[in-house]
Hints:
Number of strands: 17
Helix content: 25-40%
Structural class: alpha+beta
Mean pLDDT: 75
Number of domains: 2
Order of helices and strands: EEEEEEEHEHHEHEEEEHEHHEHEHHE
Radius of gyration: 23 Å
Low-confidence stretches: 1-21, 51-63, 98-102, 324-328, 330-342, 344-355
Distance between the termini: 5 Å
Number of helices: 10
Amino acid sequence: xxxxxxxxxxxxxxxxxxxxxxxxxxxxxxxxxxxxxxxxxxxxxxxxxxxxxxxxxxxxxxxxxxxxxxxxxxxxxxxxxxxxxxxxxxxxxxxxxxxxxxxxxxxxxxxxxxxxxxxxxxxxxxxxxxxxxxxxxxxxxxxxxxxxxxxxxxxxxxxxxxxxxxxxxxxxxxxxxxxxxxxxxxxxxxxxxxxxxxxxxxxxxxxxxxxxxxxxxxxxxxxxxxxxxxxxxxxxxxxxxxxxxxxxxxxxxxxxxxxxxxxxxxxxxxxxxxxxxxxxxxxxxxxxxxxxxxxxxxxxxxxxxxxxxxxxxxxxxxxxxxxxxxxxxxxxxxxxxxxxxxxxxxxxxxxxxxxxxxxxxxxxxxxxxx
Length: 370
């Protein structure tokens, strides 16, 4: 079997998973300190095979090719509950379908691609529990490869978010590079909190007014934890959720500024942010976007990704040999939907166009050539 590749044909996101009867191929993992991200392809014998791709030819002659319809699945597990991940892999028999072209060591039944620090830390555990080896893929390379694939192959993958408005961006494949990719790990969950009771704002200094001369709104943070210092209070005097929100705001502001300074160094105007730190949180995205916009004076743009947390796993998935990814992306083999149906300016979260912060899948085809 050779010349197999991924061809994304539709961008429908589906919340449910397929039954265990589905045939699985190409499983890849990104094992981080907080989360384990998983990508795998599944097909079902009941699903039709595309007639258009049944035969293709090359200079040496012709060969039989089938485009097998299926789904590209995205799953995540907490690293501290790694046994849940192992159980899922075992229950779905995913460990029997690692890579089509990778030879397994003598003491393993199969090998799967994996990236992240956990690929080293938990290698023995995967061998002991599932009898599979982890073929380590360089983490930075995986992140970049995953971002490149998703930006080229999935419609409406990127979007901007500022002042509560979310707008999808149509990426010109011929004008994608160069860009800065900022991957922010470590999952964060924010439920409630008010940083304004802890942070010193511009309005606190200027009597509730904006400092319009340099473009600072009254709600702009002048000093993180400023009120805690000026009011001579201890951190224990504040609600934990307010402290957490102040920290999140401070971290996000710094990420935005540092990202822009790196973009400035290399003359870049486009910055993509990924990683499960963001997780589609409006507050985090808005803070980062406002910081980039402020420090760049509107010249640079912060953009976010629907599959933000799966870049590494997607890149590891694409590292299987002979997957034909570059060839498919160069030909832009993607079903382009009418503009009115894609990239709405304002979008409520839905199973079809929502951010993939939970488990889901994309309908696609894999080309299998004999």
